[in-house]
Amino acid sequence: MKTLGETLKSAREEKELILRKVAAEVDIDQSLISKFEKNERKPTMEQLVRLAKFYGLSEKKLTINWYSEKIAEELKYTESTSEILKVAEEKIKYYKTQANGK
């Protein structure tokens, strides 16, 4: 399983691009992209979409990776993570039902 940063770095390396070139094309600072690749910082959703389009990666898969890392980071030292995730999923379904009913 690759981290988001590893996925972005692999995509850049497969295209044999240097950070400076990617930064110019997607209008994101070179040092930020480097931090994304090293998992030192997470891109915003807007930046993630730009990178996905530029690299020809699945926006959906990158978004799933982005959110899953955010959740994993938050819960990594918490007990009962499976139970927390189950309850969260139930709450999401409830919220969607409430939103659709309005």
Report what the structure shows.
With 102 residues, this protein is an all-alpha fold. The chain has six helices and no strands. The protein has one domain (4-75): Orthogonal Bundle (434 Repressor (Amino-terminal Domain)). It is 75% helix and 0% strand. The mean pLDDT is 95. Residues 8-62 form the HTH cro/C1-type domain.
What is the level-2 CATH architecture name?
Orthogonal Bundle
Portion of residues in beta strands equals under 5%
Helix/strand-derived class?
Answer: mainly alpha
Q: For the residues shown, what is the average pLDDT? A: 95
Condensed summary:
With 102 residues, the chain is mainly α.
Task: Please render the helix and strand layout as text.
Blueprint: H1 4-14, H2 19-26, H3 30-37, H4 45-55, H5 59-75, H6 81-101
Helix pairs in contact: 2-3
Pfam families: HTH_3 (PF01381)
InterPro entries: Cro/C1-type_HTH, Lambda_DNA-bd_dom_sf, TransReg_Diox_bact_type
Protein name: XRE family transcriptional regulator
What are the key terms here?
6 helices, 75% helix, mainly alpha, elongated, Lambda_DNA-bd_dom_sf, 434 Repressor (Amino-terminal Domain), 102 residues, single chain
